Amino acid sequence: MKRASWIALSVGVIVLGAAIAGVAAYEHGGGPGMGMRMRFERMAVRLQLTPAQESQIKGALKQARTSARPDIDSMRRMRATLARQIFTDRPDQPAIQKNADQLKQQLSAMIDQYVKAGLEINGVLTSGQRVEVQKIINEHQQLAERRRARWQQHRERPSGGQPSAAPDQPSQ
Question: Residue 59, class by beta-carbon neighbours within 10 Å (0-12 exposed, 13-18 middle, 19+ buried)?
Fold first, then answer.
């Protein structure tokens, strides 16, 4: 897959993941996810979703979130296991590779679920709303690029404009 396609897919997964988290916050009301609910509501206003569209989209996102939840928990545990396996005195390469392959399969399945939800949502939107979604995706991508650039500048000059003596050394 071309780099641009991977970037678009990644941004799409991030946007869908944020929307899924927003639905979870919306369903539970208030609390830590309140910002996600507000973002979903702003998106709904920006896209001028009808109540029927909003309901269908929330349903698709809720289904994707429900399907992905066990995978997310499993992947979190698998990443921790993988890290423990890697950082031992005698790493077991076959076991590490087996777990890495399982993690890749789970990630691929989760992406497939997000793509399925995205296609379902796409079917609910009008052509004009899809154009607006493309604008939102581009804005998110530009924001992420600006954040990466600021982070890179911070890494290059973390102490008040002075270059770091050893940027790859952990803090003590």
Answer: middle
